[in-house]
From TrEMBL:
Residue ranges occupied by any EF-hand domain in the UniProt entry: 44-79
Organism the protein comes from: Nitrosococcus wardiae
Alphabetical list of SUPFAM superfamilies matching this protein: EF-hand
Organism ancestry: Bacteria, Pseudomonadati, Pseudomonadota, Gammaproteobacteria, Chromatiales
Name by which UniProt lists this protein: EF-hand domain-containing protein
Molecular function GO terms recorded: calcium ion binding
Amino acid sequence: MITKYKVMCHSLLLGGVLSLVLTPAFAGNPYGSEEEGTAGKQEMHKEMHKKMFQKLDEDGDGKISEDEFEEAMEKKFERMDKDDDDYVTQEEWQAAAKEHKKEHKKEYHRGETQEGSEGQQREGM
């Protein structure tokens, strides 16, 4: 049972990591030119992965222990299991993905240039 739980937790983490990596790839180019966009995306991904690592490394020793990893997965599962029935349904999974996407946009698209924001406002007028 514990092994099955660990596999499930690791699968959930992999899904979360993949969604963090793939979401920006489909979000368009908020950085202007293609060259700037590629460099900007790389920097954004580096920063995002650094923050994720630091969040998982609770004791700050520069390494993620199995206990730290499993604790993070348990917390993630608990957040996703809205009805506390010890199962994550497809609906709960999709709701968590939608919430993650919303949080990702909030956190990682604040840095858009003023010029880009103004340009978007002008186009909308």
